[in-house]
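worker-3 :: picked Glycoside hydrolase family 65 protein
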Amino acid sequence: MNQDYIKPDNWSIIEEEFDVERVKSSESLFSIGNGAMGQRANFEESYSGPTFQGSYIAGIYYPDKTKVGWWKNGYPKYFAKVLNAPNWIGIDIEINGENFDLFTCSQVKNFKRELNMKEGWYNRSFEATLANGTEIAVNVRRFLSLNLDEAGFINYEITPLNKDAKIVYKPYIDAGITNEDANWEEKFWEPLEVKKATHDAFVTAQTFKTHFKVTTFMHNTILINGVASHISASSIESTNDKVQYTYDTLVAKGEVSSIQKIGGYTVSLNHDNTLAAAEKVIQTALTKGYELLLQEQIEAWAKIWEMSDITIAGDVKAQQGIRFNIFQLNQTYLGKDSRLNIGPKGFTGEKYGGSTYWDTEAYCIPFYMATKDQEVARNLLTYRYNQLDKAIENAKDNLGFKNGAALYPMVTMNGEECHNEWEITHEEIHRNGAIAFAIFNYYRFTGDYSYIPEKGLEVLIGIARFWHQRASFSKDKNQFVILGVTGPNEYENNINNNFYTNYIAKWCIDYTYEQIQKVATEYPSDHKRVIEKVTLSDAELQDWKKVAGNIYFPKSEELGIYLQQDGFLDKDLVPVKDLDKSQRPINQKWSWDRVLRSPYIKQADVLQGFYFFEDHFTTEELRKNFEFYESFTVHESSLSPCVHSIQAAKLDKMDMAYAFYLRTSRLDLDDYNKEVEEGCHITSMAGTWMSIVEGFGGMRIKNDALHFAPKIPKEWEGYSFKINFRHQIVKIDVSHTETQFSLEGDKELTVFVNGNAIVVQPNQLVKN
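worker-3 :: tokens ->
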């Protein structure tokens, strides 16, 4: 059974009642971030119950030594970890001589957490009775500023309810922290310097090995009934990695005592002198003040929502789900820095190393292209271009490829492979195809071809060279085959001729060949520069074409489907519906050997190919493959429901499309996979957006034009979304009776609805 304690609400994530069994899950769900840093929703005060402490800084990582039972040639030397950053939110609190800890309170009532997605803040309120009998009301608000993105703010209010109270605040910053997922239980931070002032404190530390320098800072203000009290610290304690201040207050029953804390990080990625930068951030924050900064936060989020919001009428859970997904995506990545990317857990946890996967190219880029300026998506492509040399090195040194063949890593922070499972690292090579597809998709959507001659062509050539060398000729089949791979379905390892892998390999070579010819004709100087740089000959191009023109695709003529791989039909083909529910999820119930021998599919595999290359197949081909493979899919990957929702909508299977939409949109809120305490599934959240826009909205780009085939679940009264298409913003409103289009721009736009052209004029409403 899925969890259901999150209260339905259009704009907020709300939890009521305190339950120690839910603390870690809620720490994930109520996480906050601003693109530069983020943190789980840990309590500011000390908490002795089960908790997963986590604060994270974008771009800061550590090469944790790979932990394997034995070493094989080609294994990556390390598994890059997103680091649990120094803690700046901590505030130990004593009330009438007793340490305040929700886990040890004799009673907690009227507990409420709220993550206000519309305005970008997290609030926690409750009444508690301490063991010493003191009753208090607490209200805490926290936010990470979008405008001043190196700073976060806490307003922590305590009101004694039944007696006067001596309340002692002990705010601290602490660099002596460890990671939840450290392989060797080692510390990752080396303290360098501690600095203390009247209300300010700074701890500068650097990571071992990678030597990222970070100054963690805080500034404290004590208030009584909302007025600064100018109370000075009664003591300041420090070690080489921690500073803690003590503020003593005497508060009458019914009065409000509070501490406002400014904290955050300045990092060497952005500053030569991180300490001086931290001092400047504090001064900027103090000049503006808490209330103005909160108002700026609300306005900044309003601007984001103005473009990226999706509205759903008549279904609160569906509305809450899509906004939660959009909110988390924007918290994780705002597109300001091409050195950064989108980790599968974002700022909500440490699983998967917090690194870059193919999820970015396959799922996230469409969201960022359509809801932000195209420069944001271009930055994501530039990220891969900047790591091309590492991809070539990876293919050469780890797998023996030559001549500039590039294999992009399955997991990376800086371009080096850092995934330590051989069946993924060496065999899940289809990720190369997603990177090439993203280049194609970017041009298809934006019309900006300049990226390809400037950067993209080099990436495409490296990838095409990889596929050419990775294929081998089968005399038996008289075709080229690709052996020993793992497809998108990671419940199959070391298999031969995965359809999706073979298909995208052929497409990559063909597409690269086409772009070489196009650049030669339209950008001759770039063509000359690139071809000379990579030393590409006509003979090599012809060898590529031989592979692409004669590659093998496993197929069942009897069933009219492509086979996921050779031998798939030899399995015991028991559909998922006939699988005992007690055996689910199979990845937590079965041995790996049993999983590999089963027909069960983790996520879209053959269907991933049909999603990327929909126009290459007929609707009837999609139907046959969808109906066959969905029946064996257990959807135990967060990336699975969105593709199935899009294709179910295409096939008019609207009940199924809606069920998959709910699953992808509420995957974490309802904890479908029973793992949300480890963090949220950030990259798959872009798939939720796709489920509505591409699934129900039927949006496609064909011949430089927007096409729609709108459909609506019976559970909804209507829905709407915006698309930033080539610098014109079109809004689509869909109901059961009509579809409306409106346009922000300075020239008309022709869109197609179910194949019929409609001209939309600026600032006019067009109904269909």
